[in-house]
Amino acid sequence: MFSTPTGLPRVGRFEPVLNHIAEEVSSLTDRGRPADYIPLLAKADPQRFGMAVAEVDGTVYGVGDWRHPFSAQSITKVFTLALALSLGGERLWQGVGREPSGNPFNSLVQLEHENGIPRNPFINAGALVVTDRLQSLTSDAAGQVLELLRAESGNPGIDFMPEVAACEASYGGRNAALAHFMASYGNLLTPVPGLLAAYFWQCSIVASCKDLALAAGFLARHGTRANGSTLLSKSQAKQINAMMLTCGTYDAAGDFAYRVGLPGKSGVGGGIIAVVPGVCTLCVWGPGLDRHGNSVAGVLALDRFTTLTGLSVF
Ligand code: GLN
């Protein structure tokens, strides 16, 4: 129904497809349930939906609640990884693997079998290692992630949400267990309490689809930041995209790759970012989650986007 956007006139080229998708999503009856491990997320309305597309030149399109800030949660793990790789390089991989886990994002079991080395940077254990390395390099991992998001999105209003950070800490027993367990294997460089605080602050960042689609632009620009400087080498950007494809949507990454065919990273706040290398970045938000923790409306919207436009990495 829609021709490939690269063949359409420049002005408004993604608008028809976004409007079409929003209409399809509006008739979705079962949207899953918001995350309920902290009360603040459980209150979100599953009927809300937003979607933004940012082209590599920073032109941005959106539909629905695309300017509405939501809890970015694990989407921030992509930005922490980008900074840790940019500043610390390859030695990161001594402490975290690059394989899909096939387990829930907060699982403890695999860690013992694998001697405290988490499977990948996007499950909680792996993200804790990445935050630890960034913390050891900068002493303010969460602040660095926030700065990167602000700079790349051009929105200085993106911020932490202290109430969410506090809730994460008070319900954070499992993340604390993961951190202490890895520390017992000698796989953390910084003290556990400070690391957990940095991780919870990072999870609490609130941003909109517009902000996050723009902020992820360096992944579609092969590592180049919005101001033209280099955050990652071409090869590092490719590596992060590959890892998003294989590990970015938890134990549903295979199904996401099948349906959407793009590198993606979800968060339990109901957001998902996705990358069409060389073309654009996307962010969708719908707070209702499936049993893996991925937004039901979000996965559907991305599935429809790649189907209708033909834009995919395959
Ligand atoms: N704050 C959440 C946690 O650490 C983030 C999880 C997620 O978005 N998958 O449990």
The name of the CATH superfamily reads DD-peptidase/beta-lactamase superfamily
H and E string: HHEEEHHHHHHHEHHHHEEEH
Class per helix and strand makeup:
alpha+beta
**Total domain modules:** 1
CATH topology: Beta-lactamase
| Tally of separate helices | 14
Count of distinct strands: 7
Distance between the termini: 19 Å
- Rough shape? globular
Architecture (CATH level 2) name: 3-Layer(aba) Sandwich
Mean pLDDT over the residues: 95
Cross-sheet strand order for the largest sheet: 2-1-7-6-5
What about the largest sheet? 5 strands, antiparallel
Helix content: 40-55%
Q: Identify the bound ligands.
A: glutamine
* Low-confidence region ranges: none
Describe what this molecule looks like in 3D:
By secondary structure, the protein is of the alpha+beta class. It has a single domain (15-309), classed as 3-Layer(aba) Sandwich (Beta-lactamase). 45% of the residues lie in helices and 10% in strands. It is globular. The model has no long low-confidence stretch (mean pLDDT 95). Glutamine is lined by residues 73-74, 105-106, 124, 168, 175, 203, 267-268, 293.
Outline the fold blueprint.
Layout: H1 15-26, H2 39-42, E1 50-55, E2 60-64, E3 70-71, H3 76-88, H4 109-113, H5 124-138, H6 141-153, H7 162-170, H8 173-184, H9 192-203, E4 206-207, H10 209-215, H11 217-220, H12 234-247, H13 253-259, E5 264-266, E6 271-276, E7 280-285, H14 296-309
Antiparallel strand pairs: 1-2, 1-7, 3-4, 5-6, 6-7
The structure holds glutamine.
Glutamine (GLN) binds next to loops.
